[in-house]
Amino acid sequence: MIEFNVNGNEISVTAEPDTPLLWAIREHLELTGTKFGCGGGYCGACTVHLNGKAVRSCLVSLGNAAGARVTTIEGLSPDSSHPLQRAWIAEQVPQCGYCQSGQIMQAAELLERNPDPSREEIVSHMNGVLCRCGTYNRIIAAIERAAGAG
Fold first, then answer.
1. Distance between CA atoms of 119 and 106, rounded to whole angstroms?
2. Global confidence as pTM
């Protein structure tokens, strides 16, 4: 049994320590906002925060999450009132929506560390979180909007 904190709740999961954190989140905890994309850490759809740092949950073993604090998209704001979530809607970012939780979690890490990033800082920080629909300009606009709201 591996214990850690998810979205402010102490939980325990019975699984092998080498189980990807992604599967513990989706299958054991039934928090399906975090998506499986590539399974190799390349796309960013599975991005969550581990002790405040954006990580690809498909690459983090459950054993490495023991005792840690994990935040998923569901924990960012249960009522979708986070400035990034509001900006995502205002800028009409999603098309298919599959990558959006990973995009938002990556952006949340940036705004936590730098509440007023430049466009170049946004682009650099978001590099590696892929959007197959190509809504990158809307993603940048939403992050800029959320930074202005903060």
1. 15
2. 0.95
Q: Round to whole Å and give the CA distance between 38 and 128.
A: 12
20 DSSP assignment: B
Q: How far apart are CA 95 and CA 86, in angstroms?
A: 16
Among 65, 61, 67, 70, smallest CA distance to 16 is for 61
What pLDDT score was predicted for residue 3?
A: 97
Distance CA 133, CA 126 (A): 15
Beta strand segments in the chain, E: 2-6, 9-13, 47-50, 53-56, 69-71
Q: Could you tell me the CA-to-CA distances from 129 to 5, 10, 18, 67, 97 in Å, in that order?
A: 25, 29, 24, 27, 13
